[in-house]
Amino acid sequence: MVPVKIQCGCGQKYAFEVEPICGRMPGKVTCPVCGRDGTRTANEAIASQLAVQLASERSVHNIMMVFAVIGCLTTGIVGITKALTMADGVNVLLCLLGATAAFGMALAVFLWKRDKSAMNRPKLRPNFPAR
Description:
This protein has helices at residues 39-84, 89-120; strands at 2-7, 13-18. With 131 residues, the protein is mostly helical. It has one domain. It has a two-stranded antiparallel sheet. Helix 1 (39-84) runs antiparallel to helix 2 (89-120). The relative contact order is 0.09.
């Protein structure tokens, strides 16, 4: 449910909660005092609320991605440091393979995130005159 608050042109304030359909009002809204149509204002309020919710979800997702990359980089550095102190060749190889996998995961997460954000950008289309 999305809370909607409207102030009509006549000065009347009214509020309600609605379950939007495709980000819009499911029906017509009218002022309880003068009967003026408030659907457009309600749709603007819904769009504003949904944009705020979407922005907060994206910021949490970005923070999680940063921590994932930091964790993978830290694991890789620890693996390389551990490999430098080992004497057995097989253990060194396994430790370096783990470190390489951790660095690869950090790079993959970074590239995946960059590609996802590029896909969300609006596409630019040339404006050709209609025939």
